[in-house]
Amino acid sequence: GSQSAVSGGQGNTASGAGASVSGGHNNIATGQMSVVVGGQNGLAIHDNSAVLPFGSSDADTWCSTVTICATNGLIVNEMNMTSRIISLRDQVLSLKSKNQAQDIRYNGLEIKYNELATSYIELAATVAKLQAFASLSSSHVVHNDDSL
After folding, report:
1. Are the C-beta atoms of residues 61 and 47 closer than 8 Å to each other?
2. Is the dihedral of CA 64, 92, 69, 60 positive or negative?
3. 39 within 8 A of 57, measured Cβ to Cβ
4. Who wins on pLDDT, 143 or 1?
5. Burial, 54: exposed, middle or buried (Cβ in 10 Å; 0-12, 13-18, 19+)?
6. Which CA distances in Å does 113 have to 110, 118, 127?
7. Alpha-carbon distance 86 to 97, whole Å?
8. Residue 5: CB partners within 8 Å, gap ≥ 6?
9. Buried b (16+ CB within 10 A) or exposed e, 69-100
10. Are 28 and 44 in contact (CB under 8 A)?
11. Which helix (H) or strand (E) holds 98?
């Protein structure tokens, strides 16, 4: 492709505009401005994508992505990113579980609140009836005069 380049390796192809393959074996970069770096059987078919197929073959999945295949883990600044990602995933799953438990508790409290609100309304209605009855009863009370 226009301004594409292959710099070493064997059986590599760079056909997208501005695409490049840097070494390795049987790598293909067909997306515009895509790149495959080393490895083997890497395939960068989407625009602005990069594939680093270290250790095995890999292909980009979406435009404007970097795909790395590193079967023994990805280390960045002496940190094993694979282990870190697994740890973060586990933390997210734990938080989701805790959130679900909180939702269950909240829903239980909401049900109890609604039951109490209904009971309060019923109780208030009963109190109002009793007050009305008491008021009515006190106005019809006949007093006996025992002094006669």
Report:
1. no
2. negative
3. yes
4. 1
5. middle
6. 5, 9, 21
7. 17
8. 14, 19, 20, 21
9. bbeeebeeeeeeeeeeeeeeeeeeeeeeeeee
10. yes
11. helix 81-139
Per-residue pLDDT of 91-104, as tens digits, reads 999 999 999 999 99
55 contacts 62 by C-beta, under 8 angstroms: no
Pairing of strands 43-44, 28-29: parallel
Copy the structure tokens of residue 30: 């067909």
Q: pTM for the full model? A: 0.51
The pLDDT confidence band at residue 36, using thresholds 50, 70 and 90, is very high
Alpha-carbon distances, residue 62 vs 30, 47, 56, 67 (angstroms): 13, 8, 19, 9
pLDDT at 129: 92
CB 81 within 8 A of CB 74: yes
Burial bucket for residue 9 (CB in 10 Å: 0-12, 13-18, 19+): middle
> pLDDT tens digits for 41-90?
889 999 998 888 876 656 666 677 777 777 777 878 888 888 898 999 99
Q: What share of the chain is helix, strand, coil (3-state, %, to 5)?
A: 40, 20, 40
